[in-house]
Each structure stands twice: as structure tokens, then as C-alpha cells.
Amino acid sequence: YRHLAKEKDLRRQAALSECIYTALDKSRDLVIITDHAHLVQYVNTPCMQVVGYNRDELVGKQIGMLHEATEVASVYRQLERGLEWVGRLKWRTKSADMLPLQTHALPFTPHPSLAVHYVYLSDNPLQTHISPRGSLPSIRKASYDLKSIISEGSARRQSLAKLYNLPLEAPITKVLSLLCAAQENASAGVVQMLEQVMDILRTTELYTSHLKAENLRAEDPLTTNLIAALVAQGPPSAVMPRRSSGDSVVSKKKAPSKRSNIVTMSMSKELKEAMDKISSWDFDVILVEKLSGAKPLVYVGMKIFTLFGVPKTLGIDERTVYGWLTLMERHYKPGNTYHNSTHAADVLQATALFLLRLRAKKLLDPLDEACCLIAAAAHDLGHPGKSSAFLTNSGHYLAVLYNDISVLEQHHAALTFKLTLREERVNIFKGLDRKMYTSARACIIDTILATDMFRHYEHYTKFVTVFNKSPDDNQDAKGEGKTNEAENNINPEDLMLVKRMLIKCADVSNPTRPLPLCKQWAKRIAEEYFSQTDEEKARNLPVVMPLFDRLTCSIPVSQMGFMDYIVNNMFEEWDSFIELPEMLYHLRKNYDYWKELHDKGITGTEDTNEHLESVLPHTILPRT
């Protein structure tokens, strides 16, 4: 009886397997399943139709034959760590064409005693779906031979799948996922309405009041004005008004002097050679720190502000810019091992390079760029070398002043404007008219506040949900003229998301720099966190980051964790906005380096304690 029951169960499982294979063959997605060694075990019919190989040509072969080795290595690494991978992957067809497809790869173990398998799910370019409105069309202009367009709805699902894999989940992610699911089999009219709903949900303030004109009483203007003043007006918007290329933002009565105010800075031969690499991702700001006498922000700032024409944009002379940068540098604390003016110069250089390498060249106008650069230079101004949580736990006066909310970021922004407006000779905003100053101030504050890591997943999630259109989708299908028009007509609120993501990526870009720089920054931030933990223990305060105990900390583990949970996904999204391939290259190489150290049992703390002098700021004397 048991034998018959087992045989019946096997037949049932076989029938179920046949049903599953039939369903996979009828699926519109491309499906490939490999074993733990990445050898193809199954491929469905739609996949064979797209890549041009038959089943016998693929089964038993390395899936790597369908990809570039350098590109698929990161996928393998993610899967072998037991994590899912979502992103754009190029598939090689039998005719040697490279077809970029949105792909979701995931590890699967049918039973604990069985080896892991890897499942690859890719969008089918031969299918046509309803394509809702895109947020940023043609931001990457590719030139592939295959003129296929992946549906935006599918791209949205893949983006939301990436968000689903994050360690935290926002309610908006659940809502958008449900709405996307509702769109699947809905009529065109319902799909359009749901698209409008999702656009509304992506706005910054869902509960911000807007007066409805039809409800206003013309016979009672006093009450109407009162209500408008009380409930419908908030702080100035951080959205910069869009201007034509000929518009000026400079106040006519405060036009810059025509007399020469060019600042000439003396530099040694070595410093000049280091500064000549400022437009490279390999730029060594730590070397500039050493060669400049611990004044990297002034040198880097003058070079970059001049390169972007910031004095002309703001209607000021170079001496004002020089005075402002000198003042900013003086208010960074040189005793901090990480949050000092060298970090500010590093973030400023990364911001400048991101602006130079934007794929959509007309995305930001000169005043937008100037605000991003100003925010980058001042984003950690007056940093005490301790976290916001430490300030709150210790009852620091800054925590009391800012009600325990984004304490450091509020302090950085407020101090920036307090110092800037205090003296005419350093007031870089004195050339702007009132309207443009108000907009610029709001933009700079918003950009600095975006560096608060407490709101990281909020900013990242919103960026992904708004800019989820696959970057290769509109490959010149609408023509260059319409592409440029689309770039200029991007929703200003969405543009603010780009500026937030830009400074966020610049702020945490250390793991994407060449390995020697990555190692230096890792040791500097570890030492600053060690000092905080030491003080928390000495004062019997809650230990905010127990991992950073100098006696037990593993720097490789801390770096890998930071990359896994913060850096990797964010920079993969940001990579579609900029032309800087070396960024992800270094990120992957650096991860492998830290993993190798961890596998060897090297914590990095011994090296930090014994040779700290070689990686700390080259001087900690107060600046004059």
C-alpha cells in the first residue's frame, strides 16, 4: 500500500512539474534556471525565441556565454551571497547582438539537502504592453541594433522589486506595488486613472493644503486672505523656477564690478599637478590636503567654482568667492578625523564631476549647479565629530535648539547662511535679486538636509519610484529635438529629487573611489566613530554604534555592510543618470578587497591603531 501511495505521489508531482513547465513556456517573460555552478538547466520558449539559441545549445552550458564576463560577475556575487539581484543586464543573442533587458535573478533551494539553483527572469522585448507616462525619457542615449522598447509598466515592477529587497520598506512602496498589480489586467481607462493616482502619491507633501478657487467667497476677501496666510503658505519652495538661457538672475543694482577681481592662488608644482586631476574620479583630495597645508576646500572650491562660472552666475567677483570659501574652511573642525574640510572638498569634487557627467546635459541650469556646489561645500559645516543621535542623547544645545530633528543637518544649513550673510565681503548671494535669493536659499537648505541618513530610504525610495523608467527605453525613438525638449520640461519637483540624490551619492562616494582612497576614508570614519563610542562609554550614554568599538570592530565587516545596505543599490540607480563607469568598477573591486580581508580574519583595527598617523588629517592645528 505504501509503495502504491508513493508511486501515486510521484505521478502527481510529475504531473505538477509538467504543468509548471507548460506555464513557464506560455509565460511572456524570459526564464532561465541554472544550477549552483551557473550551468543552464532549463530555458523557456520565449527566451529561445529572443536569444536565437535552441534548448540543446544552452542546457549544460555556462549562462555566462550569454553575457559579458565583467557585467555578470556582480550578479554571480550577489546570488552566491544568497541575495536577489535586480537591474539592467545585456543578453548576447546568437547573431552577436547585445540586448539590454531588465532582469530579476534570485537564488532558490527546493530543499535544504539539495543544492541551490539560480532563476533568471527577464522582460520580453517582443511583447507589447500599455506604456504609461515616463518621468525622464531618453536620459541615456544608447545605440543598440535591436530597436525594442521594454514597457515602462514592466520597468516600474522591476524597480519596485528592487525596493522590496531593501531591509526597510516604506508604506508607499506597498501602495505602489498594489496599484501596479491592479494595472495588469485593467482597461486602458483604468490604467490611465491609476497612473494619475501614482503621480499624486509621488508628490512631496500629500497633506499640504491647496486652496480651491471654487470654494472661495468673493464677498469675504478678508477671511479668504487670512485662511490663505494661515494654512496655505509654508516655507519657500526648494523648487527652482525654470528659466530660459538668456534670463539673468543677477540684481541690476548689484551688478559685479567691472574692475579686475581675479584671485591668483600660489601653488607648488606638486599641488598644481594634483589639482590638474580635479576632473577625474581618481582625484586625490587627501594629497591636496597635505600639499595645501590642510586647506583643500579653498583650493578645490576656487578651481570648481571658476570652472562652473559660479561668480558670473551669482553676479559677484572671485574675491567674494575666495573669502566665502576661506570662511567656510575655517569653520570646519580640523580635529575631526573624517568630518573636516577635506571631506567637504571631496564631496564638492564628486558633486562637480556628477554635474559634468550628467547624461541629460540640460537637466540643470547654471543657478541649479551653483546651488548644488554651494551645498556640497557647506554640507557638514561646523560638524562636531559626533552624530545627531549622540547630541540628542547627551542633551547637547544643538539638539535642544533643533528639537532633536535632523540636528546636524539643520545646524550645517543654518550656520552656512548665518556666516555668509554676516559680512558683505563674503556674501556670495549679494548679487541675486530677492526672488532668486529666496529660491536659491530654499534649494541649498533642502539639498543639505537631504544628507541626513535618517531619511536615506525615504529619499532613495522616492527617487526609484519617480525615475523608474529604464534608461535605455527611448533610444532616440522620438528624435533628438524632442529629447532636448523633454529634458527641459521635467517636473521641477522631480528635479529636486535629482539634486538630493546627487549630493547623497557625493556624500557617501568613498567606497566608489580607487582602493587607496577608499582605505584611507574607511580608517578615518572608523576612528571618528571609535572616539564617539569611547565618549559614550565614559559618560554612560547609550552606545549609538556598538559595532564601532575599537577593541572589537572589524573595518572590513563595517565597510561591506555599508556597501550592501546603502551604497550598492543607490549607486546602481545613480549610474543611469551619469556617464562615470569607473565608479561602479571601483565599488565592486573595493567590495572584493574588504571581503578578502574578512575571509582571512583581518579586522583592520590593528592597522588603524598602529598606523593611524598616516591616514589622519595632515594637521590638526587651528587655522588662522
Automatic annotation (TrEMBL):
Its EC number is 3.1.4.53. InterPro entries: HD/PDEase_dom (IPR003607), PAS (IPR000014), PAS-like_dom_sf (IPR035965), PDEase (IPR023088), PDEase_catalytic_dom (IPR002073), PDEase_catalytic_dom_sf (IPR036971). Zn(2+) 1 binds at H343, H379, D380, D507. SUPFAM superfamilies: HD-domain/PDEase-like, PYP-like sensor domain (PAS domain). It comes from the Eukaryota. GO terms for molecular function: 3',5'-cyclic-AMP phosphodiesterase activity; metal ion binding. Residues 263-601 form the PDEase domain. Zn(2+) 2 binds at D380. Keywords: cAMP, Hydrolase, Metal-binding. Its cofactor is a divalent metal cation. Pathway: Purine metabolism; 3',5'-cyclic AMP degradation; AMP from 3',5'-cyclic AMP: step 1/1. Gene3D superfamilies: 3'5'-cyclic nucleotide phosphodiesterase, catalytic domain (1.10.1300.10), PAS domain (3.30.450.20). The active site is at H339. Signal peptide: none annotated. GO terms for biological process: cAMP catabolic process; signal transduction. Residues 16-84 form the PAS domain. AMP binds at H339, N340, S341, T342, H343, D380, D507, Q559. Pfam families: PAS_9 (PF13426), PDEase_I (PF00233). Belongs to the cyclic nucleotide phosphodiesterase family. PDE8 subfamily. NCBIfam families: sensory_box. This is 3',5'-cyclic-AMP phosphodiesterase. It comes from Panstrongylus lignarius.
